[in-house]
Write a structure and sequence with these properties.
single chain; about 80 residues; mainly alpha
């Protein structure tokens, strides 16, 4: 996740150095609130990437992936159990 975001920001933010981008991304993913001050200079795509990383970091990667697609199987299994009871 962090690697993909780093590659995207390296492409969309040519004015920022690799160290600045990695710092901003890991800070967003870890939701620690630290910044080097380049967040306001990011493009719209860069800001969206940071927002998504902050959300995933707060919720947790496994919980986030579960809500995207893993919940259907459990719901189907629960409805079968309820019908059989």
């Amino acid at each position: 996740m962090v690697l993909i975001a780093t590659i995207i920001l390296l492409i969309t933010e040519p004015h920022a150095s690799l160290i600045q981008i990695i710092f901003e991304i890991t800070s967003a993913f870890g939701t620690c609130g630290m910044s080097l001050g380049i967040t306001s200079d990011l493009s719209v795509i860069g800001k969206i990437i940071i927002i998504i990383l902050m959300f995933i970091g707060r919720v947790g990667l496994i919980s986030f992936l579960y809500t995207l697609g893993g919940g259907d199987e459990v719901r189907n299994r629960n409805s079968i159990i309820q019908r059989n009871a």
